[in-house]
Amino acid sequence: MKAHGQQTVNQRTVNPNRILFVLCMAAFLVPFMGSSINLALPQISAAFSLKSIAITWISTSYLITTAIFQMPMARLADLIGRRRTFIIGVLIFSVTSCLCGFSVSGNMLIVLRAMSGIGSAMMFGTNMAILTSVFPQHQRGKALGINTSVVYASIAAGPFLGGLITHHLGWQSIFFFSATVGLFVVVFAFIFLNEEWIVSKGEKFDWIGSFSYGIALFGVIFGFTKLPSLFGALCIAVGVIFFWLFTLQENRCSFPLFNIQLFKNKVYLFSSLAALINYAATFAIGFILSLYLQYIRGFDAQKAGLFLVIQAAIQSAVALLSGRLSDRISPSKLATLGMLIIVVGLTGWLFLSADTPIWMIVSLSVTMGLGFGIFASPNTNVIMSSVDKKHYGQASATTGTVRLIGQSLSMGIASMVISLKMGNRKITEDVYPQFMESIHIMFLIFIALCLVGVFASMVSRKNNVAP
Prior knowledge:
Blueprint: E1 7-9, E2 12-14, H1 16-48, H2 52-80, H3 82-100, H4 106-124, H5 127-134, H6 137-169, H7 172-192, H8 207-226, H9 230-252, H10 266-282, H11 284-296, H12 301-325, H13 331-349, H14 358-385, H15 392-422, H16 432-463
Antiparallel strand pairs: 1-2
Helix pairs in contact: 1-4, 1-5, 1-6, 1-7, 1-11, 2-3, 2-4, 2-8, 2-15, 3-4, 3-7, 5-15, 6-12, 6-14, 8-9, 8-15, 10-14, 10-15, 10-16, 11-12, 12-14, 13-14, 13-16, 15-16
């Protein structure tokens, strides 16, 4: 007799709940570090005398490499095994994170963060694919909701624990803590992940497509951070050309890196677009508020972290509920509702000033957390449920890649606006007025993006015939 919730695959027992536990531990790692680092940025900037643009690259370097490698790593996992790829990814992430704590310069830290992105790509190129493979469709929304809830819980824990750790032990301790958690994930993965999930054994790896894809993505994202310079525009042009070459390669390749035909599915296409826009319009908010609270309001890292916890805590609780609801009612309707609430929250941030009442900051954080919590797991459920089982790996990688591209674009927008309004200068009291102007411009751009995202989510809803 099998225990409740277990499946037998290739004569071996697979316990979905144990696998979910491992995947949730991994899902905790990256968001925790990202939200923690936001609180440590002033300390890191002071330690290495970093200017405003260099500060943004501590996050952007990681996001770019993760975005570039996630799709190829997901395809590699289909060929050699998702379990193997996942474990190697966690190891790379843990080792490079530990090394980040020993950085002796800003450039060294940025390079190591980029290397961490490769490990993260291997983790998140397989995470959703494994989860979707072991849970049947009628339980998938619940599992995705739990996984998403853990992500937001880690984002909530990041500012609180990260601020506390940074304040008392220094910024290096954030990296050491994440590396330690990563090693525990490796141990549990060896114990509980007892299936390889090889779905494309014997097929060839698309090296040409992977190279074209990497150059295309790097050109667009890196170029965006360099706008409005001519160099930035040229990088974007190169990226667009290589995207075109990538499309040609995938259409004629027998075993493509990505099945372009998936985008003919309108539900898949517009739900992915909605996710891309959502992250592009929201990811940099944590970065912005961290700097605002510490520079403009004069809070230390520990106190600023308490304010940043609010949005993530609400997201975590609501994502768990919305994931369960998406098994019963239309996940597309939930995703559209969430996006509309985010627009309301972003509009409120337009009125942020040096004297904004604390209650207003708290209220807006609650609103954003509510909107994003309602949007995220139902939208992921729509994407993963719109493809055949064989394409779970690609759909998982697409979900992660559009998230990372959106996050990279969000940081690119922040970097571009800061560069235009402040130049590449240290954030000191004499540039605080320009910094506040930058914040207002960013939120105007984010609102415009999010309105487009509402449209994409509504189109997805109209084409989704699922209940």
